[in-house]
Amino acid sequence: MKEFGSDFHLINDFSSYNFQLEKTQKLQYYADGRQALFNLLIHNSWLRIWMPEYFCYDVIKSIIKTGIEVLFYSDFPTQNDLSIISGLSFKEKDVLLRINYFGLRDTRSNIGIPVDVIEDHSHDLSSAWCLQSDADYCIASIRKTLPLPEGGILWSPKGNKLPKNPLSTEENENLVYKRLSAMLLKKMYLNGKFNNKNYFRNLYIKTEEMFVDLPISAMSSINLALLNTIDVAKWDKIKKNNWTFLTQSLKDLCNFLLPEKIETTTPFSLVLVFNNESERDRLKEKLIEKSIFPAVLWELPVSCNKKLNIFLSIHCDGRYNLDDMKDLVKIINRVLKK
Known about the structure:
By secondary structure, this protein is α/β, with parallel strands linked by helices. The chain has helices spanning 20-24, 33-42, 57-64, 81-86, 128-131, 170-190, 197-212, 221-227, 232-250, 277-289, 322-337, and strands at 4-5, 28-30, 48-52, 69-73, 94-99, 116-120, 137-140, 152-155, 270-273, 292-293, 311-314. The chain has three domains: 20-155, Aspartate Aminotransferase, domain 2 (3-Layer(aba) Sandwich), CATH 3.40.640; 170-220, no CATH class; 231-337, Aspartate Aminotransferase, domain 1, CATH 3.90.1150. Helix 6 (170-190) packs antiparallel against helix 7 (197-212) and helix 9 packs parallel to helix 11.
């Protein structure tokens, strides 16, 4: 592999459709996950939403636009969310958002929580928690997990009424064609058939910015067509095998997050854990020099606890095979031992 990580390139190696969640739930399809959450909030009568402190603050900015009051609770990947939630001061017409960070959490129950619950399953669409959820509503940004130019979903495990189905918009169709062009050009670049990396990088950046002000939109027909070619189960199996190889190979060299129960989860990525933000950023820069592009989830405001800026996500999803993982381990080994 010429480089690791960053945005998905166009992948057409998964030609058999298999999306377990769709077999059991009535899904509503959006341009992205934040739209699913936004539309849900504006069509309900909740007055306050409890959000985990460790979250995407671009999404939180969208939530604030709905007029709902945002309250934070101190949840993050290494936290005991069950004990934190049990101590929250809920009021009538509150709603709670829970998240399966990096696909590492085992099944949670919402029994005993006195308010409506929304779960975010963006990082693992096939976990036991996702498939067996007892939440009032669930959302996911499937474009973060699957090689698609866009995509968010909304459903209700309890069968609650969903908002009206969103309509297609010209703005979203244009965004998808631009992003799909970037994915195709990146594929050509990785295959040595296109050299202008800045061209498709700018397309990725431009379209990411477009998502921010995009009107609520149905998932585009071309994205639905692409989704219908992906064997999600196969994708997840490859990702889990890659993750297992990486953790076994690197267990004596670095610290990383482990799932609560590997049998019921598919880790989103290899998440390295550092003592502080500076240590994390130093390794990130060294990896980028070696054409490994890890992700920081998420860029948090200065008001957040500094101990949350210690995670670095290294992609190991279904676009890579075992030989790619062996190359990745060699590079990480060299960087960590310096």
